[in-house]
Amino acid sequence: MALGVCTVCSEQNAKYRCSKCPVVYCSLSCFKSPTHTHEQIEEATKKEVTTQKKESDTENDQSKSKSLHQKIAEDPIIQQLLRYKSLQVHIAVLLKILNDSSITNEPLAENRREIANMRLCNLRMGGSEENELVEEFVSRVIELCS
C-alpha cells in the first residue's frame, strides 16, 4: 500500500505512518526531525475542533432564529394584530428607519437602531405617542421569545 510522498522531507516515498498524527514519513531521521512535532498537530486539531464547534453553534443559532421568526410569523394573535392599518404604519416607519440605505457608515448605522428604539419606546406604554396596538404587539413578541 503506497502512502505517498514523505510529508516531512517531501523527497522520498513514505514508508511509515506516525501513530500519533496523520504524518507519513520515509525514515527515522524524518520521524525525529524538528518539523515533525505533535504539538503543531494538536494545535491544528484543536483549531479545527473549535472552528467546527463555532460553525455548528452558528448553524444552531440560525436554526433557532429561523424557528423563532416562524413562530412569531405564524402566531394567530400576531397575525390578528397585523391586520390593523395603524400598526402596519408604525412598523413600516420603524423598518424604514432601520433600513435607510443612505446611512451606511457604521456609527450612523448604530444611530439608526437608537432612533428606531426611541421611536418604539415613544409608541409603547408611557411614551409620548402611546399606542395600545404597538404595546400589545411588542408584548406578544416578547412573550413568544421567552
Fraction of residues in β-strands: under 5%
- How many β-strand stretches? 2
Number of helices: 6
The backbone outline, from C-alpha atoms, is elongated
Structural class: mainly alpha
CATH first level of the largest domain: which class? Answer: Mainly Alpha
Low-confidence stretches: none
Helix content bin: 55-70%
> Number of folding domains?
2
Radius of gyration: 29 Å
Oligomer: single chain
Largest sheet: 2 strands, antiparallel
User: Residue-averaged pLDDT, rounded?
Assistant: 80
Distance between the termini: 58 Å
State the strand order across the main sheet. 1-2
* CATH fold topology of the largest domain: de novo design (two linked rop proteins)
Which series of helices and strands comes N to C? EEHHHHHH
CATH architecture tag of the largest domain = Up-down Bundle
Task: Describe the overall structure.
The protein folds into 2 domains: 1-33, no CATH class; 68-145, Up-down Bundle (de novo design (two linked rop proteins)). With 146 residues, the protein is mostly helical. The radius of gyration is 29 Å and the shape is elongated. Strands 1-2 form a two-stranded antiparallel sheet. The longest helix is centred in the middle third of the chain and has 37 residues, at 38-74. The chain contains 6 helices and 2 strands, in the order E-E-H-H-H-H-H-H.
